[in-house]
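Example record

One chain of 153 residues, shown exactly as stored in the release files.
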Amino acid sequence: MVEAFLHERGLQLSAEKSKISHLNEGFDFLSQNFRKYKGKLIIRPSRDAVQSFKNKEQIAFAQNYFAIQTRKFEVIEKRIKDWERLQARQKLTLSEKELSELIYEQTGNDRNFGIIRSKGDQALFGKSTQQMKNKLGVPKGRALADFFTYNYD
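Predicted structure tokens for this chain:
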């Protein structure tokens, strides 16, 4: 009778999934457990659904934990690279100061250091210091070296 009813609607029973039981024994349907207890119908999540939810909750917790740890690592790594860049920039500043003082002592002109540095940029990059500043969008009064990115890999 049930099979004929379902067949008219294009449905069929699955022998592996279907069983006929008394409502007092209870049954699971659509992740819910249906059971009659002391004359009342009780519907609550099935054990499989609860276990599945607990597993998903653990997986979600683990994914969140690892996402947070990964982000922390990325932030720390960026700070280390920024610190290394700052250290390299400080070394460059000291070296340029020493070289500038030496050139000034030898030539008596403080413009010569700028000319030498621009010639070095021309040799390295094929452009003058000002052309490089224009290309990188360096604001007036800022050093070109502040806008280089260093690759420590």
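Notes: The CA atoms of residues 138 and 144 lie 7 Å apart.
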